[in-house]
Design brief:
The chain is of the alpha/beta class and 222 residues long. Helix content is 41%, strand content 18%. The protein starts with a helix and ends with a helix. 42% of the residues are buried.
């Protein structure tokens, strides 16, 4: 019974995600879904990225959290419009579903944008199961989380199109093996592109932004 309901929820989400994809195509906007566990540095990375991308790339953000609009407030300092979704009113969902994304994308006004970035709710499990009609899924893992996480949460790394290893400025203070974590990511997802960077210092940011800009151009021609 429980499995049946879960299957129906995922199927309904899939149908809505296809509608979102058509909407985003019609609006000629590229959509990036950024996922990670809480605290790996998604908002920090987005703030740094937005400062470099705008105004050449016109970016809007949709950000999900169970409560607060802290992240939307942080992101809006960059000048980007940010829509905050809080899921406590929907039972505290641990992921953003496709229907919530479409409503927020319409509020954002995609027509004037080249890129919509969705900062998903901090969780390495559920967001991986819910397609939102995005073009690219990115997973962020920080160096304080342990090298074994790609092996423990393989679905997230399997569905990701790109991975970011964040907080490399902390490597001198930790017993963390960056080569091992990249090997573990690529064990569950062969040839997964991985960008090692620090969203705090900005080290390693450029290759990630170049990769993203090429993806946006390939879809939108902008
Ligand atoms: N040292 C260091 N701290 C970082 C870096 N990126 C984020 N942080 C810090 O990590 C904490 C969580 O970051 P946040 O962006 O809120 O993570 P989120 O929950 O994934 O959105 C904050 O205190 C950030 O200042 C980084 O590259 N290096
Ligand atoms: Mg955040």
């Amino acid at each position: 019974m429980e499995i049946d309901i879960q299957k129906k929820v995922l199927e309904a989400n899939e149908t809505q995600a296809d509608k979102n994809r058509s909407f985003f195509k019609e609006q000629n906007v590229f959509v990036l879904n950024m996922m990670s566990s809480p605290g790996s540095g998604k908002t920090q990375l987005l703030c740094k990225s937005l400062n470099k991308l705008m105004p050449n790339v016109r970016v809007g953000v949709i950000v999900g959290d169970i409560c607060t609009r802290n992240d939307a407030d942080r992101l809006e300092i960059t000048g980007a419009k940010a829509i905050q979704i809080n899921t406590d009113q929907f039972g505290g969902d641990c992921h953003l579903s496709a229907n919530l994304i479409l409503a927020s994308a319409k509020e954002l006004g995609c027509f004037d944008l080249d890129l919509v970035i969705v900062e998903n709710i901090g969780n390495l499990v559920c967001p991986a199961e819910f397609d939102i009609g995005e073009d690219v899924k990115a997973v962020v893992l920080s160096v304080t989380e342990g090298e074994d996480k790609p092996l423990k949460y393989p679905l997230m790394f399997r569905v990701a199109d790109v991975a970011i290893l964040n907080k490399i400025d902390l490597l001198p203070y930790l017993d963390f093996d960056a080569k091992l974590v990249v090997d573990n990511m690529q064990q569950v997802h062969p040839h997964l592109p991985v960008f090692e960077l620090s969203a705090k210092t900005g080290e390693g940011l450029e290759p990630w932004l170049e990769w993203l800009k090429i993806k946006v151009f390939e879809k939108t021609g902008k």
